[in-house]
Amino acid sequence: MTDLTADRPSWEADVLLKDGRVAQLRPIVPADAEKLVEFYARVSDESKYLRFFAPYPTLSQRDVARFTQVDQDRRVAFVVTLHDDIIGVGRYDAVTDDEAEVAFLVEDAHQGRGVAQLLLEHLAQAGRERGLAEFTADVLPSNNRMMQVFREMGYRVGGQVEDGVQRLSFRIDPTDSALDVMRAREQRAEATSIERIFEARSIAVVGASRRQDSIGQAMVRNLVLGDYQGSVYAVNSAAEAVSGLPAYKTVKDIPGEVDLAIVAVPAESVNDVVLDCAAKGVHGLVVISAGFAEEGPAGRKRQRTLLNLCRSYGLRLVGPNCLGVINTTQAVQLNASLATSMPPQGRVGFFCQSGALGTAILESVARRGLGLSTFVSAGNRADVSGNDLLQYWSEDETTEVVLLYLESIGNPRKFSRIARRVSQSKPIVAVKSGRSTQGVPVGHAVKRSTAPQAAVDAMFRQAGVIQVDTLEEMFDVAQILAHQPLPAGNRISVVGNSDAMGLLVADAATAAGLQVLDPVPLGANANADDFEVAIEAALANPDVDALMVVYIPPINTSGEEVADVLAAVGEQSDKPIVSTFLGSEGVPELLRVADVRGGSAGRGSVPSYSAPESAVRALARVVTYAEWASRDHGEYPAALDHRT
Predict the structure, then answer these.
(1) Has residue 311 been placed in a domain?
(2) Residue-wise pLDDT tens digits, 508-523
(3) Are 260 and 20 in contact (CB under 8 A)?
(4) pTM, whole model, 2 decimals?
(5) 529 lies in a domain?
(6) Is a pLDDT exceeding 70 seen at residue 500?
(7) Exposed/middle/buried for 438, CB within 10 Å: 0-12, 13-18, 19+?
């Protein structure tokens, strides 16, 4: 019998259940016989009756052989496993050249987690590959849960009742409705898995140490000093207390539930921690520890083992070799990272891969006054990726702008689909490093795109992603998107008290593709009243889509009165305003308005740039995005997508 685990790798998949837990879906094999019997013993009598239409307390040896020995052609069967246990079985048996009968059985403890939907989705794909066009299913009228599965999958289901049994039939070609259902299920499961990390209610720091210079000590300190709103547990096999917290020898010894584990132990000990976390029912791990794929062949093997172990037990993995995760929401205040202080609260979600670069990013964010909602440094990106974060941010109400620093793209087709959807409501700004070589950074022993850079650039453009070349440009653009409205067009007005700077702005704007109206020079001695009159006149002009304000302070003046004017107008304006104000970079205190959600700077705060060219370049990129977002983008072609 052919071994389909080798012949059909596309039929194997790591899948996410509705609650964000990782499971495995694969073809059944004869070696599953014992596990199938154990699975069936855990299924309730009611579920067995609904499956076989009669009492069926045990499986005979003949049953087991029939269910596990299939040709994976006319008879195809899949299992979903969790912790190496079977939790669901689905199969089809062809009855004609293009029709097959489909059936499922899911362990009661896992019903309602989307197992049957996953089995049906993958069986339909396998059936299409084998030339099938239609599935049929016999269902008892009282089996409401299974009837709901077929309805919710988006297929056009027809049927009739014969001898007390509902005979259902439906074509398995991927209709728009079915595709929408599958993508919605995918999005919700992936978002939920990330949400459970960001909103963990209890955290164990494994490797917590009393040494002040240790990573484990830093993780405990940052959680506590960051005013994390959940419970923090220190795990140290050789100490009774760490930083005033009682220490536990293993995660399993902690009383109560643990949602998230921060792992800071030597690489060779991480797998033992995974096993403890699995036994405790932990949802996810943030592995700060180094010593994995960034350290050559032995490290890559260690990382593969770690990932396989996490997935076999249903755990999500951030890292390894990462900086950590942050959630600034006041109800959580999670600083599970090596950053010594929490960044300002705000509306920007940030994903990066490099742990070392993550520190510099957070320092730049704080210096500019650019508030973050959530932050992830994925390190070697063994599991959690930018695609997962996009799925989460797409529905996160605290995130309005997405920033990505990408060193590699694992699944460009999926990225394009998700980014295209997200960009229509939330702008995405991305830096793609390695543009000259398209290389993969050390430690990224994961699937990545081999597409040429021109193809990556085109993908970003079509998905509405604002691609920039440097981190500085990323922050320049983000300052506008996070605080100002989108422009309706490319026409800008320039108001300032420096003729030379005004001309510089005009030249830069023209070069960037913006249409510049006649600058409004106010003269070096212009006061706050002069600025207020000129700014309000410019914004009232229907031919103006955006405003650039240049303020160079005269000698012996602080500029506070002009700042008050700018901040007041910015808070009320429906047109974006950018500035070169006192040579400041970021969102200076003087130009901030209050944030109703308690963040560092509210909507309407006016961003400032030390060089006018930077302001104009950032504004031009925002104009291009606004024009893209205003268009009708149609539907994403199903043939261009993957489920992985």
Answers:
(1) yes
(2) 999 999 999 988 889 8
(3) no
(4) 0.89
(5) yes
(6) yes
(7) middle
